[in-house]
Amino acid sequence: MNISLDGIVVVVGNYGSGKTEISINLAANRKHAGIDVSIADLDLVNPYFRTREARKQLSELGIGVILPPDRYLHADLPILTPAVAGLIRKPSTLAILDVGGDKVGANVLAALADALDGKAYRMLQVINPFRPFTDTLKGCMKIKGEIEKASGMSINGIIGNANLIDDTNAGMIYDGYDFVTMVSKDSGLPLEFITVPAWLYDEIDMNRFLCPLLVLQRQLVPPWKKAAVL
Fold first, then answer.
1. Residue 226, in any domain of the structure
2. Would you list the DSSP string of 186-204?
3. Residue 42 lies in a domain
4. 3-class state of residue 92 by DSSP
5. Total structural domains in the chain?
6. Contacts of 223 (CB under 8 A, 6+ apart)
7. If DSSP codes are grouped into helix, strand and coil, which group holds residue 155?
8. Please, is 87 exposed, middle or buried when counting C-beta atoms within 10 Å of its C-beta (0-12, 13-18, 19+)?
9. Whether residue 146 has pLDDT greater than 90
10. Residue 120 sits in which domain range?
């Protein structure tokens, strides 16, 4: 099954959920499928592991990347470029908004209320069952409510991202899928897709899943490691 997303897609979640890694890889995945893609870095909270770290590879793929001005690129400052509002008003076939973690990061969306008014969008909550606060249905729904309150927007889908970084194994992917399937059923939110690290892909039994799968070519790595090719 292929991922089928277009229009404005807002990716949210709690800290450490993996939303930025997913946003980058989703952009590359849809671009490889022949879709016109743009991505905006709206993470104004965390100075590390942001979409801007992959800007060279994304740009080389022909993906429009909206970032703060160069002089503020590595600043931990709440800078929201007007180009983001422009992207929302006149989006690409797929326009991805990578939003900062938790309710604090989601506050930026309230500043885009005018641009988003009347626009159809998908706001997808990334859930990693192996992270604190999203290892139970109650915790996932609490994070959901906090993000919705802060942003003034409604989450209308979920993404499963079960991992423990380099310690991830196939069993965790299966268990994570079962968990987000349960969350989807109990919350009524559709499960858009789940993820698997590229290095683990060959060990995965695809017949176990009833949703699309996004293979992650890891981009957000520590300085002593090299990002994978998108």
1. no
2. HH---EEEEEEEGGGGGG-
3. yes
4. coil
5. 1
6. none
7. coil
8. buried
9. yes
10. 7-216
